[in-house]
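Same chain as my last thread, 171 residues:
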Amino acid sequence: MSDTFFPIPQELRDPFFFSEDRVKIDETHFQPCDPYFAYELLYYNGRGADSLPWQVQGSWVKDILMEWKKEEEHLKALFKCRSKGILESMRKSIARFYVLLYWSNKHPVSLENWQSSIEHFSIKPVNVIERLTFIRNNPALYHSFIQLSQLFEEQHKQYAKHQALNQWANK
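reply #2:
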């Protein structure tokens, strides 16, 4: 294993996701949200991979949505039995939504002034800033879970529409 500690870059400093000022990453094996924003952590620390996922539109959308579907089922069960694991599972899912939203718009996640950057995205759900703010402020509420589920679905539809229009325009 090649675990390395990386400082949390300014672009990702957000106490909602990171309580420490550095995070451990195994550079040989990691996923977009394990740890949170792994590709961005490496990228902002000057250790970016050859192919950055937000620059290459493709299978990562399917992977993120597949992981979300698993987590969504897990969250349903947690909410049903009012479990203590809700907050951490919601935090992971919110991070995953940020990844989907930013990467769909060909940008690495940046939590610094995230509202203003999202405002300029062309592929996004309606009222995403207000809805995401509500979810972040109330992550343990069932209504936040429902909102997050809807945001994933709407972002996926917006992305699919964008891809279809681009394919049609390029013919």
